[in-house]
Amino acid sequence: MKFCWSTLTVSDMATSLSFYKEIVGLEIDNQMQVGNGTQIVFLGKGETKVELICHGGKKETDMGKDISLGFEVPSLDKQLALVQEKGIAVTSGPFQPNPFIRFFYVSDPDGLSIQFVEQLR
Questions:
Q1: Cβ atoms within 10 A of the Cβ of 70, count?
Q2: Total domains present in the chain
């Protein structure tokens, strides 16, 4: 079995696309309009896929408090600088629980916890 993607229902497609493209660094892979004003966008190349769905007129989402998506970055310091430059609050961290990993968390536009991780080799 292979993991395909994570599906996120978002309240505003443009805001979420901006976050996932500019902050997370994912590229649009595919996008479509479906009935009732619903937009679907798949982001990511290769194995990392995120599906954003925005239902026309629905502005409330419930991401849950105990879920996060983690994305590996080449430099945690550069990612932290980008996040701060864009005015995004760090919600937790940075942490280095052992000599091999560093990470911190931010929230996406709908409140989903996003973890940026640097593997230290």
A1: 11
A2: 1
